[in-house]
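User: Could you go from structure to sequence for me? I need the amino acid at each position, not a summary. Structure tokens:
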């Protein structure tokens, strides 16, 4: 128990605080270097994801137009089927008409023949209508396909541009990332999450800044002399009262 207590106290000792601040500052400089490498990529990563989602949307559109195409073709097939059936009936009625015994039977069959003739006419009319819809739809499909081709070409170019940049900085970034991991291990979780939150909300990715000319190096607002003194003495993890960033003394990287 006794040793544990000493250890806890040790956590708040000047050297422990100093080490924490140094660790945080070092992590910040590694992160800033990684940020710089990523800035080199500019808008390219965003452009790539935008193009990818545009292509996805176009593919969905193409799929729905292709479904319409299928439906239209199906309705043509069913009309053709009807015509075939009507023709079969006409053939059957024609044969029956040869064997009629009276006018009444002849007239009845004639009516059926007329009816089937009208059915065929109607089906042909429907097929014609669907045909022009099919043509319109085919035109739409053609346009979508052309758009997809253009976007894909564009995407390929952007991706290769991005690849060139990534490859040129890959080794450096890997080195920095492994350095970052090592540094993170030595920082307690609570501080890490404070740091990560600060980095996400700050536009320039700075969570840890030096006090420069009595001002916060992040938002440049001035710092009271008492606060500055406490920071200089490394009394605790202290924050800028204006922007909330972690403040470190300007001699933090001088050993
Ligand atoms: Zn500030």
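Assistant: Here is the amino acid at each position, in order:
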């Amino acid at each position: 128990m006794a040793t544990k207590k000493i250890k806890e106290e040790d956590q708040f000792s000047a050297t422990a605080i100093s080490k924490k601040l140094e660790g945080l500052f070092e992590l910040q400089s590694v992160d800033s270097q990684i940020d710089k490498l990523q800035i080199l990529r500019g808008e390219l990563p965003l452009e790539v994801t935008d193009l990818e989602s545009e292509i996805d949307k176009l593919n969905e559109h193409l799929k729905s137009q292709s479904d319409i195409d299928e439906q239209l073709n199906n309705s043509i097939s069913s009309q053709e089927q009807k015509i075939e059936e009507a023709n079969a009936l006409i053939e059957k009625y024609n044969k029956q008409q040869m064997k009629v015994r009276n006018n009444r039977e002849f007239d009845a069959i004639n009516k059926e023949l007329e009816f089937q003739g009208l059915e065929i006419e109607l089906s042909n009319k429907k097929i014609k209508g669907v045909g022009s819809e099919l043509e319109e739809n085919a035109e739409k499909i053609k346009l979508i396909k052309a758009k997809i081709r253009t976007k894909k070409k564009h995407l390929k170019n952007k991706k290769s541009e991005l690849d060139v940049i990534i490859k040129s900085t890959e080794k450096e970034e890997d080195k920095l990332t492994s350095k970052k991991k090592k540094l993170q291990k030595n920082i307690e979780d609570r501080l890490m999450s404070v740091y990560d939150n600060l980095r996400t909300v700050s536009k320039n990715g700075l969570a840890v800044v030096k006090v420069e000319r009595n001002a916060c190096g992040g938002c440049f607002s001035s710092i009271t002399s008492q606060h500055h003194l406490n920071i200089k003495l490394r009394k605790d993890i202290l924050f800028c009262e204006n922007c909330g960033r972690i403040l470190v003394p300007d001699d933090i990287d001088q050993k």
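One structural detail worth keeping in mind: The radius of gyration is 39 Å.
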